Amino acid sequence: MDNKREHNRSPLKVQLRIDHPLHGQMLVTTRDISDKGVFVVVDDAQRLLQIGEIVSGQVQGLPIEAPIVQMQVVRFEPSGVALIFQRD
């Protein structure tokens, strides 16, 4: 099977705080990251996200405060949600 992905993914397991405008904060774990986005592992209770929604996210647990980035929900899989970074 050919990998048709434009951006290579790198495994990355960190805690990510997602801030949703209606549902508040969710703490999730990332599975992988690329130049374009990140995949986060979520359980059914956290499936409050909808395709197309914009959320903000910030990596937690670093020695310095990480930047807050805007992301858009683009895909669901049984194990989680794919988010793409919103560029200015």
UniProtKB/TrEMBL annotation:
GO MF annotation list: cyclic-di-GMP binding
Domain (PilZ) ranges: 3-85
Pfam families in alphabetical order: PilZ
UniProt cross-references to InterPro entries, sorted A to Z: PilZ_domain (IPR009875)
Protein name: PilZ domain-containing protein
